[in-house]
Amino acid sequence: MILVLGMFNHPMSDGETLVSGKNGINFRNLTTVISLAILVGSEIFGVALAAAWAIAGWWNLGIVVERGLMGLFSLIGLYGLVVFLRKAVSVEPLTR
Question: What does pTM read for this prediction?
Answer without folding.
Answer: 0.73
